[in-house]
Write a structure and sequence with these properties.
four-stranded antiparallel beta sheet, Nucleoside Triphosphate Pyrophosphohydrolase, alpha+beta
Length: about 160
């Protein structure tokens, strides 16, 4: 099984969370996630966070502290993925998908939209991790994430 370190970045504006819409090109399955992805080569996790947000959303961020972590055992792809979610301290730029267009990358095939969601709006979509829909997450947001949370291990049979 391959091990992968992944990051997710929690970007907030006006009490709304920025999420990226993914659509599987073959099945049409649709889900939303915070911007993020895998750490490449010798890249630091914070550099990966900055790169992923810029590539997927066109935003420049100052990466803050880690606040969430989740493990995914993805048997269909023979991967064990550890995702660490970071807050952002500063955000600049305009939200856009133009940085992934024309590259022929996997992101270009899957990413279809970027949008800010309120606590109420996020409850009506398929989002990963699901914790982002829970009142406990929004309580953490309101209280500036008083503690680091491990969201557990998810086993995906594929």
């Amino acid at each position: 099984m391959k091990h992968k370190i992944s990051i997710g970045v929690l970007v907030f504006k006006d009490n709304k969370l920025l999420l990226v819409k993914h659509v599987h090109p073959e099945t049409g399955f649709t889900w939303w996630v915070p911007p993020g992805g895998g750490v490449k080569g010798s890249e630091s996790i914070t550099d990966a966070a900055k790169r992923e947000v810029f590539e997927e959303c066109g935003l420049k961020v100052e990466v803050g502290r880690p606040v969430l972590m989740r493990q995914l055992i993805y048997r269909a792809q023979d991967q064990n993925v550890l995702t660490i979610y970071f807050l952002t301290n500063e955000v600049s730029g305009e939200i856009t998908t133009k940085n992934i267009q024309g590259l022929g990358s996997v992101d270009e095939q899957y990413i279809k939209e970027i949008r800010l969601f309120s606590k109420d709006e996020i409850k009506d979509i398929k989002v990963f991790p699901e914790y982002l829909q829970e009142d406990a997450f929004w309580d953490d947001v309101e209280n500036n994430f008083p503690r680091f949370r491990f969201l557990g291990t998810v086993f995906d049979e594929g």
